[in-house]
Every structure is written in structure tokens, then in C-alpha cells.
């Protein structure tokens, strides 16, 4: 079954299902779709997902899915590491834990013991916790700890959130993605309070560090389709990664972006360089999955970042200002 570009055919050879959600409609739908997968009934998702001494690297090669019920903590205040785009009421939600992609710079590599994913099937309880927040403008990032669009054709999480937001003018949604799977939303009614936020990188960076993700060309095609359909689209070049000849790589990236996308039709852009909490960086070093973990970073307020971060972002800003009104561009800077 094709879920998204570049995902291994071994995806979800096993389904771990909490016994309390065996008969939930979402569980039944997924079990039916993955009829060849082995179903293992469990008491609680943490017995599998939080198990000690798991081999994260081995699991990354053949990811499985855990179906569970979320009991509490459906909505969380937005993190310092993420932009709330001037919303005082900024939250994120994690109805799906873990990501199908394996970007080597992602903080998720150091966040969970497991490389598998957990889907909380009781989405209706997430919605109930959001409702009391909507007496004022509220932004909720629904793909903060995952990439919901990559699995949209299976789980339909983005559609469910967009449908929930339909009659709630104070609810704004951000759906972050590296997926090329915009076609999964092609029949969804456009909501101007929803921003589809694509992250892009030079193809060489994708090849080196963004394992299992769609190519740059595939992402640009999806972005173009979303823009032309009338969605609010944000493009993020974040993180900028220092590698050999990185300036030319990112200069070419900016040109290719605007060769394909009309800058006037973009809702906004964000740029930022690599940054990670010191604790997550330590975990990344232990996993020994990437040379990015061993760069000579600057540290401030428990955050690792490039010593020449300002130069990187000044360079990116100069490239962008040739193509787009810089009032649309937000720069995320540690220093």
C-alpha cells in the first residue's frame, strides 16, 4: 500500500493494538487496510513504545504502528523552539507520536526510545479539550511531533482537524510537512484559517540528512498545487545546514523555489539555521546516526546553534529579498 513517497514497503508489518481500542472505528479501519500485518493485542502502548533498551536504528528500517487511547494531556503549550506566529494562544497537539521520516537533525531522534509510531485513535477527545480555548484566537500546530500529511491517506488526521475547524473562526491550524501528498487534501474544502507549511531543503541536504522524505521536486510540485488551489501556504527553509558549498546550494534552492512558485501567492516564509537543545544533542551523539551531532556548536540557554548563525541568516535574507516581500518572511535566530 502506497502511503507517501520514499517509504519502505516493510511499513507497519506489525500493528500493536491496546485491547481497549480494538473495537474503535479508527482501529478497525486501520486493521482492515493493513490486513497482511500481524496484530498484537497489548495492555498499554507504553509497554511497547517506552520499553527500555530498544534499537532505534534497527526500528527505523522497519517501522510499526501502535494504536492506543490518549487519557490526558491532549493539548500542550507551544515550545520555545517553535514559532507561534504572534498568537498569544499557541498550542500543539500530538495525536500521532513519531514520524515516518528519519531526518537526522530532528529532535524526535532524541525524544523517544522507539522509532515506531503511536496513533491515539480517540481524536474526538482532542477536539473536546480544544473547545474551551476558543473564546479567543488560538493557533494549534497539529503536526508538531510528526508529519500527519505523510500518512493522510491512511489516518486522515489533517482532514479531521480541518473539518473540526470549519465552523470555529477563532481556531487557526498549522499543518507542517515534508510530504508530497497534497493530493490527499484535494477534495477538502479550503479553510483560510489553515496554513499548510512545507519544509524544503536543497536536494543534496535531502539526500544526506532527510532520509525517506520526498525529493525537492516532489515537494515543490505539491506546494504549487496547494497554492494554485487557493490554500494558505507557508514555505520553511529551516534548518539551514552547513555543508560543503552550502551557500551555492541554498542560493540554487531559493531560485528553484521561485522558478516554480509565484511569491505573491505564498502566504509566508520562515528561515532558520540548525538548533537543538543540549540534551537532545547528547542523545543524538549516543545514537551515532549523524555527523551533525558532532559539529562544533555554540551553546546558550541549553541550546546548540552555529557560531556563525547570524551570517547564515543574513545570507539567506539577501537571497530571498530578490524574490519576495520580506514582510512575509520570519527569521528564527538564537543569538
Description:
The protein has 335 residues and is an alpha/beta fold. It has one domain: pyruvate-formate lyase- activating enzyme, CATH 3.80.30.30. Helix content is 29%, strand content 23%. It contains eleven helices and 18 strands. The protein has helices at 25-33, 46-49, 56-61, 123-130, 152-155, 157-165, 203-209, 216-229, 246-260, 278-287, 309-320; strands at residues 14-18, 38-42, 65-68, 75-77, 90-93, 96-97, 102-103, 117-120, 138-141, 171-177, 194-199, 210-211, 232-240, 268-273, 275-277, 298-300, 303-305, 329-332. It has an eight-stranded mixed β-sheet with strand order 4-5-9-10-11-13-14-18. Strands 2-1-3-8-6 form a five-stranded mixed β-sheet. The protein has a three-stranded antiparallel β-sheet with strand order 15-17-16. Helix 9 runs parallel beside helix 11 (309-320). The protein is globular, with a radius of gyration of 20 Å. The model is unreliable at 1-9 (pLDDT under 50).
SSE map:
Blueprint: E1 14-18, H1 25-33, E2 38-42, H2 46-49, H3 56-61, E3 65-68, E4 75-77, E5 90-93, E6 96-97, E7 102-103, E8 117-120, H4 123-130, E9 138-141, H5 152-155, H6 157-165, E10 171-177, E11 194-199, H7 203-209, E12 210-211, H8 216-229, E13 232-240, H9 246-260, E14 268-273, E15 275-277, H10 278-287, E16 298-300, E17 303-305, H11 309-320, E18 329-332
Parallel strand pairs: 1-2, 1-3, 3-8, 5-9, 9-10, 10-11, 11-13, 13-14, 14-18
Antiparallel strand pairs: 4-5, 6-8, 7-12, 15-17, 16-17
Helix pairs in contact: 9-11
